[in-house]
Amino acid sequence: MPLESWATEATFALNLFTLLATTVASVFSTIAALGFRGTPWGRTLAPLPVVFVALTVSTTVTIHPTTPPHGGWAASVCWLVAVAAIAVTCWRFVSLTAELEVAA
């Protein structure tokens, strides 16, 4: 089996695994965010579903056969949204654990 074919198959398999993992994480993070809604921890967890949905969409775009191998601009926008939501989550977590008021 040529290396290029093997690498392509492995990349596709890893992308499918990533798609499955981020889909499951989206469901669980949504359940957690809704379960803690109205509490300080709920505000901290609120951006997590956005992170996992953005990563799921990014992986879906990357796997789709009509897009470039790297996913193109759509994947880049999804990653930008995910990184911004991660930054918000981190800030809220640090603020909460440092006993600072979590601002909207």
Automatic annotation (TrEMBL):
The lineage of its organism: Archaea, Methanobacteriati, Methanobacteriota, Stenosarchaea group, Halobacteria. The chain crosses the membrane at residues 12-36, 48-67, 73-94. This is Integral membrane protein. Keywords: Membrane, Transmembrane, Transmembrane helix. It comes from Halarchaeum grantii.
